Amino acid sequence: MKASSGLLLLSLAAVAFLGSVWAILYGSGDHFVNEPLHSSIEAAGACLSLFTATIILVSLKNNERKDYTLVACALIGMGILDGCHALMPICPGFTWSRAAATFTGGLFFSLSWLPQRMLSKNMIK
């Protein structure tokens, strides 16, 4: 089992390396901008994060671990802000909305690393 996962990891690294070399050698420097495709992928990611957060919250009924709640909060925050990012036209706010989503998710994910005793019952239910 470990040999197959090592082979998979090596294959993925080789594909990433060869793709990078190809992009450097044959890339023209032009940027391919397809706003509808980008918006579709962002919207799909937002829906998936909200769906995953819903599954986590539903499964928490019998679980007292508070770090899962923070993970769900991170996914909800990122999902909502990514959904807003998907609806925006390309402008300076477009970039800031993506940065805000990443910051919000990172903040809540980092809070999930706190020890259980530091998370009060009143803060997270």
Apparent shape: extended
Give helix and strand order, one letter per element, not per position: HHHH
How many H/I helices?
4
Mean pLDDT: 83
What structural category characterises the helix and strand content? Answer: mainly alpha
Strand content: under 5%
Helix coverage percent of residues?
over 70%
Specify the biggest β-sheet. none
Distance between the termini: 40 Å
* Tally of DSSP β-strands: 0
Low-confidence parts: none
Defining key terms:
single chain; 125 residues; mainly alpha; 4 helices
Q: In short, what is this structure?
A:
The chain is mostly helical and 125 residues long.
Give the arrangement of secondary structure elements:
Blueprint: H1 2-26, H2 35-59, H3 67-87, H4 92-111
Notes on the protein architecture:
- This protein has 125 residues and is mostly helical.
- The protein has four helices and no strands.
- The chain is extended.
- The N and C termini lie far apart (40 Å).
- The mean pLDDT is 83.
